[in-house]
Amino acid sequence: MPEVAPFDLDLACYRWLTAGVAHAGSMPEELVLDELARLARQPEAAADLVPRVPAVVPQLLRSLRDEAMSAGELARQVGQDVTLVAEVIREVNSPYYRATTRVTNIEGALMLLGQNGLRMLLARVAFRPVISAQTGRLARQAAPRLWSQSEKCAQAAALAAPALKANPFEAYLAGLMQNVGLVVALRLVDQLAGSAALPQSERFAGALLEHARTLSARIAASWEFPPPVGAAILHAGRAEAGPLAQALHAGERLAKLRVLAEAGVGEAVALAAALPAPEAGIYGRLRSDEE
């Protein structure tokens, strides 16, 4: 009997993200990979291919990392951005948070979520357009799936962080940021290839994902994210990974299993069912795409 290849979670997720796009012809793999390598050396040019996080976000992130900041000061800073406030209020009243009475202001959201919960909600709301608001055939089609995997990764990484002695909020930020380089890669393909097919080979997928990881880390630095966030993105899954990178790697794995299992991929369903207790507990708490 022929030997069955082991299930490659990263490759399966790549193919899930890029499936379902009508295209004709093919494009040279090296053209894309060479351009991605060039962009990795020029993160400012790469960052121009995705919507920048709102101007308030770098300042807000610095404030959110300050555990000594009072609840009132946090609410005052958030209140400076009317759009952000409206999105937070809409989100906190969604079924996911199960508020018993309608929340109408930032102070109410703070009472419901606590300071750390509000930090994470603010980061997710501010960050969603960076991945979701895409143009171009391939990037637009992949954006909802990319966002689904990103927010699950952020949540899972934050939940995994305490046991690894990592900062949960930095783990959450790393989870939100880790797919930005992949958005850049898909936007680049849209520019270079038009209607040509994105290569699906294992070699190409592995190289593209590695370039995308480097881009995510370097764009995080150019956007003034905390230095440990970019380092965690760069080293997740490597032998020398520190606690934050380990939390991110755990979050990525569980998020990919969750999205693939929800998509009905049998191998992912089986792997998810066999998770050990700590990972199974985190997996079960991830937001489903219906929430």
Please give the largest β-sheet.
none
DSSP summary, beta strand count:
0
Structural class: mainly alpha
Give the helix proportion (percent range). 55-70%
Low-confidence stretches: none
Order of helices and strands: HHHHHHHHHHHHHHH
CA-based gyration radius: 19 Å
* Intertermini distance: 44 Å
Report the β-strand fraction as a percent range. under 5%
Annotation field: number of helices: 15
Could you please describe the fold and organization of this structure?
By secondary structure, the protein is mainly α. 67% of the residues lie in helices and 0% in strands. Helix 1 (9-17) crosses helix 13, helix 2 (29-40) crosses helix 10 (180-193) and helix 6 packs across helix 7. The radius of gyration is 19 Å and the shape is globular.
Keywords, please?
291 residues, mainly alpha
Compact overview of the structure:
With 291 residues, this protein is mostly helical. It has 15 helices and no strands.
Helix and strand arrangement:
Layout: H1 9-17, H2 29-40, H3 43-47, H4 56-64, H5 71-78, H6 82-92, H7 106-132, H8 137-160, H9 168-177, H10 180-193, H11 202-222, H12 227-235, H13 243-262, H14 266-273, H15 277-285
Helix pairs in contact: 1-11, 1-13, 2-10, 2-11, 5-7, 6-7, 7-8, 7-9, 8-9, 8-10, 8-13, 9-12, 9-13, 10-11, 11-12, 12-13, 13-14
